[in-house]
Task: inverse folding
């Protein structure tokens, strides 16, 4: 994540991982999730926070989820229904489960199918926010497989190349692959120039929005650096930004995501049916293609080549997706996770009102 | 493809599809391919040319392939060896087959496995140039499936984010999905700002290279518009261009491609082992996830939403990946394919020297 999105030093409250995890689980249980479901859901958010992906951790997510449980938009005790199944695939109606609730279950089924048949995929509909895709792809990598995850939640945010009005959401994608000694590859991005959550983060941290990231409400790209506008006052641009700079590539990726998450899952077009759209989870068993031990050695060799590239003028080092996330995780497990004090105040105020013990400091 | 890469009107020679196909097949047979193999290989190039993807048709490809057959870098009569197989996967040693020779065979095996098990994937090593990925993804769409293809050929062309030296190739990716009435989705791109072949096309057509597409030999992005430099005088940039504009997203996509095409196939790191790297072909059976008829209707609805978006100021219409390719194909089947006269002169001179009948005008 760009430095500008990190919590400014003066606003940081460092919280040990086990304390924020316990508080998050307690808040989810207070919203009628079982202990197991609360633990599974909280793990997604806390791992994201540990890995430095705070755009998809508790800071932006938890108060939204609590509101959605409160209004019955989400079901805290869903029953997942298998609507179609083949040897390698499953389609699931998640019964209004939060994405972070059904996601780990769905990805594990994809992994289990891959163990048996070489590949496995699970499509999920009727579910809430997934909190990014990286966590799920990493579940496969942690089990020695290649993992892939996408979600098409949130339509009408992003303007297609040549268009004046938004059609799709930020349609994030992730892939992960294990290595032996080197930190695993974990590529986890929105197919927009910037994730919508990052605009929220920028408002909180006082960061600027770069030219070529967003458009005005006529779909005209804003090419100068500006303060983050309010929700509803901008649209997003796909990866690339403008056509000459390749936005048709980001737009095509987002459309691939839409087709697999929404059409292949049977949900139907996100731009027509609105949110929530579908999620997609896939695993590839390395042993089905090649020797796993050789794969792990080759991954180490590959990733070492990358970090050994001499940096360009003005930069310190070359990194690959997953490297800084791994460094962040090790550091944050030691030092605690740096939250914005405003987030911790929300936790304390929620816990106090709900009568939950919430020991964060 | 951007207008600048099209053959300028004054240099165009329109050739009927059946004539350029016959000449291409004859040249491949002259290089000791069987009639069947020549027909299969030529079909990839001619379909690319019909679809307006002339960067991956006969213009740039054929003379290179002929040279590679001539120097025994390629094997015109390869035996494909299955080095590993599971229910849903296969890994193939292509015995130095040209990519356009083994590719259609490999993709069909992925499709056949998907028919039986829901998904299928084939990884190929020891093979030459694939001529882009779109053709193979479209094979699945033509058979009512979602298709996916990648190739990691050509290392040391593209500079990673923050780096000064190139590591990977242009690592192209494609996905395709069928619709009912609307032209199919066909997303087929390099994970660089611009495919290397396009620099060659630009030299032929006299087009300019946009700022943020390539770097100098110190890895410094060239940010102004320039004439296309000579081969060896530049490196490519990943999708996005600069870090602030999201090149880490293009870099991550390229790395995902490298990991699946080269490490998962057992070939090993492209930046270490050099070319040729691996190819990857995957098919998803729509019926394994949802009702195929509903999928096709949903695809039509989705794609109509996109083309109905009002264009932004200065643009005529909004398109999706695959729409213009479909329009080009219809038009070119009628009018002939517009080749640069220099390409046709090469055909005529090659055919004359080889004693092949080659009736192109």
Result:
């Amino acid at each position: 994540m760009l430095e500008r999105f990190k919590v400014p030093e003066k606003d940081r409250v460092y919280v040990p991982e086990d304390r924020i995890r316990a508080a998050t689980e307690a808040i989810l249980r207070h919203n009628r999730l079982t202990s197991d479901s609360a633990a599974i859901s909280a793990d997604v958010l806390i791992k994201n926070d540990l890995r430095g992906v705070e755009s998809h951790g508790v800071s932006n997510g938890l108060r939204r989820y609590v509101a959605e449980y409160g209004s019955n938009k989400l079901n805290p005790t869903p029953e997942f229904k298998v609507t179609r199944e083949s040897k390698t695939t499953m389609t699931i109606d998640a019964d209004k489960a939060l994405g972070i609730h059904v996601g780990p279950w769905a990805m594990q089924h994809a992994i289990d199918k891959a163990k048996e048949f070489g590949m496995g995929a699970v499509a999920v509909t009727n579910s809430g926010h997934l909190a990014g895709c990286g966590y799920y792809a990493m579940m496969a990598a942690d089990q020695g497989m290649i993992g892939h995850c996408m979600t098409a939640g949130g339509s009408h945010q992003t303007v297609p190349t040549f268009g004046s009005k938004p059609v799709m959401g930020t349609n994030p994608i992730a892939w992960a692959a294990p290595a032996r000694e080197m930190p695993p590859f974990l590529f986890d991005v929105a197919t927009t120039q910037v994730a919508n959550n990052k605009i929220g983060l920028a408002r909180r941290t006082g960061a600027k929005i770069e030219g070529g990231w967003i458009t005005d409400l006529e779909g005209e790209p804003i090419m100068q650096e500006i303060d983050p506008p309010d929700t509803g006052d901008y649209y997003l641009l796909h990866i690339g930004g403008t056509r000459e700079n390749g936005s048709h590539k980001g737009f095509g990726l987002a459309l691939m995501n839409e087709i697999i998450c929404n059409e292949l899952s049977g949900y139907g077009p996100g731009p027509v049916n609105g949110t929530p759209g579908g999620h997609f989870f896939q695993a590839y068993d390395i042993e089905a293609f090649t020797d796993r031990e050789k794969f792990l050695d080759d991954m180490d060799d590959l990733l070492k080549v990358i970090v050994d590239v001499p940096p360009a003028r003005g930069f310190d080092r070359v990194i690959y997706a997953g490297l800084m996330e791994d460094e962040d995780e090790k550091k944050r497990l030691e030092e605690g996770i740096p939250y914005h004090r405003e987030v911790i105040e929300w936790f304390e105020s929620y816990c106090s009102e709900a009568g939950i013990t919430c020991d964060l400091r």
